[in-house]
Fold Arginine biosynthesis bifunctional protein ArgJ.
Amino acid sequence: MQDDLPKGFKAGAAAAGFKAQNRDDLGLIVSDRPAALAGMFTQNVFKAAPVLVCQEILAQGGTARAVLANSGQANACTGEEGLANCRATQAMVAGLTGLRVEEILPLSTGVVGAHLKMDLWLDAVPLLVKSLGSRDAEGFTRAFMTTDAFPKFSSRELQMEGGAVRLTVMAKGAGMICPNMATMLCVALTDADVERGPWQAMFHRAVEQTFNRVSVDGDTSTNDTILGLANGASGVAVRSARDLAQLEEALTAILGTVSHMLVMDGEGASKVIHITVTGAASEADAALVARSVGHSQLVKTAIYGGDANWGRIVTAVGYSGASFDPTQVGLTLCGVERFRQGRPVNDDKEDLLAERLKAKDIPVEISLGDGPGSYTLQASDLGHEYVTLNSDYRS
Amino acid sequence: MQDDLPKGFKAGAAAAGFKAQNRDDLGLIVSDRPAALAGMFTQNVFKAAPVLVCQEILAQGGTARAVLANSGQANACTGEEGLANCRATQAMVAGLTGLRVEEILPLSTGVVGAHLKMDLWLDAVPLLVKSLGSRDAEGFTRAFMTTDAFPKFSSRELQMEGGAVRLTVMAKGAGMICPNMATMLCVALTDADVERGPWQAMFHRAVEQTFNRVSVDGDTSTNDTILGLANGASGVAVRSARDLAQLEEALTAILGTVSHMLVMDGEGASKVIHITVTGAASEADAALVARSVGHSQLVKTAIYGGDANWGRIVTAVGYSGASFDPTQVGLTLCGVERFRQGRPVNDDKEDLLAERLKAKDIPVEISLGDGPGSYTLQASDLGHEYVTLNSDYRS
C-alpha cells in the first residue's frame, strides 16, 4: 500500500465524520526515528492553533516524528480553547503510539472559526493509529483534502553517491491561496540522511521558488503550512556539495510539480496564467508587478473568457506600485507582442491571439526595462465555477 | 431640457458610432464663462492621454470652460499618437465653439489600448456642438456610460447668504474601481462663485471621503478622473466660513450619493458591503484592513451567496499588513457580534445571521483595539454576473 513513501515512514487515515460520512478526514504519518524538520508558515496575523504549535516544535528542537492532519475544521481564530484542543489531539495520538506530544506536528484545514469536534476525535484516533501502514501517499493526501478536485502528490527516487533516497510530497489546497508563504498544507518526506541546517536552508529556497509563486485568489489563509521531514532511514548520508545540490534540485522540481497541480485545481480554475516579469529595477518590483497582474479580477476574468483584452494586463502593471518608466514597458501575450515601449503593436494579430487564448496554459511576458529584477508567478483564472464553489463553501 | 444643470452650463451629446449605433457616446459641457477648476486623477502609472491633458490644464491655470467626454475608447496606453489624437479632438471643438484648446477638458473611457476613431470624431463633433443646450444631466451622463446599468447623477440647490446656488454631479463607472483615487469619470458642476483655492481644497477633502472609499474589483483604471467646475454664474459669492462649510457639506453629500450608486452598480454586483474599521493604531492601518476585506474574493463571494462564513473576513483582516494585537480583534456582521478578543462568540446566532445576510446592504464592523484610527469603505460583492460581464466585455 505504501510503496511510494520514503523508508521509515508509515501513513494511516480514518473517517471521523467531520464533514461527510465514510470519507477519510483524518490522517497520520509516523516516522520510525526522529526526522530533521523544516517548516514554513502563513504570514497571516491570525495563525491557526496548529500553526502556532508547529512553530513551537520547530523552534524547540528541529526534529519530529509524526504529522497529524485533519480536514473539516481549521481551528483558526479559536483562541485559547482552540490551542487547548490542538494539544489534546496531540496527546491522544501520543498516548496510543508512545510518541512524545512535542514530536507530533498538527495540521488543520476547513472552516475558519470552527472548533475541533473533540468527541469525534476521541472515537476516531484509535482507528487512525491502528490504520498506520495501510495508506500510501495518495491515501494520506485524500484525508486532508477539502474542496480539492483531485489529490496532489508526487514521489521520486534519487541516486546519491552512497545509494538511493526517496522524496515524496503530499499537498492539499484549492482556495485561499496567495504567494505570501506556504499557501496550503503540504508535507515533504525524505529518507535521506541530511543535516538539519542544510535541509532547512534548501527547503526555504525551494519553497520560495515554488509554493510562494502561485496564486489562486490572493487570500492568504490562517493555516498555510509546509513541512519537510528527513528521517535518514535510507542510510544514505547526503553531505557532499554534489549530493546536496542534487537533493535540492529534486526537491525544487517536485515542489514545483505539486504547486502547479495546486493552481490547476485552483477553486473552479480552468486555466493557468504563467506570468514572467523581467527587466525590473529589483526582484521586489518584479514581484509587485507579477502579483498585481495575477490578482487582478479583470485580468483573470478576461483570460477565463478567452478575451484578448491585453489593456487590462497593462493597467494592472500600472497600479502595481512598482517603479518603472511606462515608455519602456512591453507585453507579449501567448507569444504575440502587443505592447512595446508604451505603445500598442501588432493590432492585426488579434485573431491569432484569440485562437491561442483557447489554450489551458496562458503565458504572459512583461518587460519593464533593462533592470536586473525578474519574477515568475502562476495564477489561476476566475470563472463561474469559482463563484459557485465559494459562494456556498459550507453547504 | 437642462433645468437640473447649474446656471451658465449647457450640455450636448451625439451618437458617433464608437460602439453601438444610435446611442449617444460623445458628450460636451460648456460654461458661458471660465470656471474655477478642481481635479483628481488616477494613480496608475499608465495615465491615459486625456488624464495627462487634464493634468496639464489644471497645472497651467486652474480654470476651464468645457468638458468633452467619450465612451468606446479609453485612449490609454496609446503613446504619442494617443496624445496627438486627444489634442486633435480638443482642436475640433475649439474650432467650432470659439473656445481655446486649453479650456477644454477631455475625458475618455472604454477599452484600454484602443486608439480614438478619428474619422468618426470628425463626423460627430459638428453635431455635438450643435446639440449644446439640448441635454440635461442625465443626457450628458448617458453619453459616457459604458457597462453602467443605470445613469448616475444628482443635483441639489443650496441657500447661501447671498442667494441660491446649484450643484450637479454626473458620473460613470462600474468596473476597474478601486479606492486609490477617483475610480471612474465624474464631473461636478456648480454656479457658485467660489475662489479656486477653497474650491480645490474642499473638493479634495470631499473626494477623499467619498469616491476614494468605494471598491468594486480593486482594479485602478488608467483613466479615472473627477473634475469640479465652479463658474459663478449664479452671482452668489461663497466667501464666509458658514457658506463655505455649507457648500463643502453639500458637495460631500452629493458625491457620497453618486459614489454609492457606483458601488450598487458595481459590474454585476448584487449587494453593497459597508465596512467600518475602528480602534486601529492609525487611519492608514484602518484603511489597510478595510481594503483587504473589501478586495477579498472569498469575502465577496461569501456575501454574494449569503454565507455567514465570517472567518473569511477575519482571515482578510489578518493578512492586511496592518499592525494590531490579534487577541483584541472583534467582528460584528449585520449587527451580530461573532468574534470578540480573538475568539468566536454567539455561535447560536447563525440562523439570525443567515436571515440578515439576505439584505442588499451588509454592514461589517471590525474593531482592532483601542487606537484612534478608523476608516470606512463600500465594496461590492462578487457574483456570476461579474464574471459574465467581464469575461466578455468587448463583444
Notes: Chain B has a mean pLDDT of 87.
